[in-house]
Design brief:
By secondary structure, the protein is α+β, with helices and mostly antiparallel strands. 18% of the residues lie in helices and 17% in strands. It is built from five helices and six strands. It has helices at 4-10, 28-34, 40-44, 72-76, 111-115, and strands spanning 50-52, 58-60, 94-97, 121-126, 129-135, 155-158. Strands 1-2 form a two-stranded antiparallel ribbon. The two termini are 24 Å apart.
């Protein structure tokens, strides 16, 4: 098994951040054990959001587009590093909005909410300022549709 943190240490780089694996990925240790880095899932993704990450393992790049949870990556994964159990959620990720968000700076912006098909982002009015975004974690699927259009890159997807 490849220890990305150890490899980064010996290359003089900081410990890598946890990467977002494709939907329905097994837990990280099982995913690394099963994944052969064949890139079949990358080729199967119609949104082209799957890229080769650290060590060549697939990771999600929400700067390109959002995940539609179509399951094409799972179907393409022959070693079963991606495995879709019946009624299983695709992943435990949700959106998070940081302090760089324009409404936190007093500037009107609702772009992330416009792109959220799940309508998980709502804007609460406030006296004397722009409405602030709030994420309904029950509705948020972590699809990433809100990430790319954010003009300040204040939206991230994480656990």
């Amino acid at each position: 098994m490849v220890d990305a943190g150890r490899r980064a240490f010996f290359r003089g780089r900081p410990r890598p951040k946890a990467e977002i694996r494709p939907p329905w990925a097994r837990d990280e240790a099982a995913f690394i054990d099963h994944c052969t880095r064949c890139n079949d899932c990358l080729k199967a993704c119609p949104q082209n959001i799957l890229v080769a990450g650290d060590g060549g393992y697939p990771t999600v790049d929400f700067k390109v587009a959002e995940c539609t949870f179509c399951g094409d990556c799972v179907s393409a994964c022959q070693p079963k590093a991606l495995w879709r159990a019946e009624n299983a959620a695709p992943w435990p990720y949700t959106a998070s909005i940081g302090e760089d968000c324009l409404p936190h700076q007093g500037v009107e912006c609702r772009v992330c909410g416009d792109y959220c098909d799940a309508r998980a982002i709502r804007f609460t009015p406030r006296l004397g300022g722009s409405p602030l975004p709030e994420i309904d974690l029950e509705k948020c699927t972590g699809c990433g549709a809100c990430v790319a259009p954010c003009p300040t890159l204040a939206v991230t997807i994480r656990r």
